[in-house]
Design brief:
single chain; about 90 residues; alpha/beta; 1 helix; 6 strands
C-alpha cells in the first residue's frame, strides 16, 4: 500500500443524480440589475431551481426551470410571477 496506493482501484461513492444549482428567493434582489425587460432569467445566470428561503420586497418576474411551491407563493404574494421553462 505504501508504494502503490491506487492498487485496489477507486474508493468512495458517486452520486447518480446531477447536482442542481439553486438560489433562494431572498437572494434574487442582488440580480435585479441583470433583468431584461422586467424578467429575470435564472437559467441564463446558471441557476436550475428556485427555493423559498427569505423574503421578497419587490414584484419580480422570474424565469426558471424548477421552483418550490413556497417560492412561487412568496413571489406571487409580492406581486410578481414565476414562469417555468419547459425543456
Amino acid at each position: 500500500m505504501k508504494y502503490e496506493p491506487d492498487h485496489f482501484g477507486r474508493h468512495g461513492f458517486v452520486s447518480r443524480f446531477p447536482e442542481k444549482n439553486a438560489i433562494n428567493v431572498g437572494d434574487l434582489e442582488k440580480f435585479l440589475d441583470r433583468a431584461k425587460e422586467g424578467v429575470l432569467n435564472l437559467d441564463e445566470l446558471g441557476f436550475d431551481k428556485l427555493l423559498g428561503k427569505g423574503r421578497v420586497k419587490t414584484a419580480i418576474k422570474v424565469m426558471v426551470r424548477e421552483a418550490s411551491e413556497k417560492a412561487i407563493r412568496k413571489i406571487e404574494e409580492a406581486g410578481g410571477e414565476v414562469i417555468l421553462i419547459e425543456e
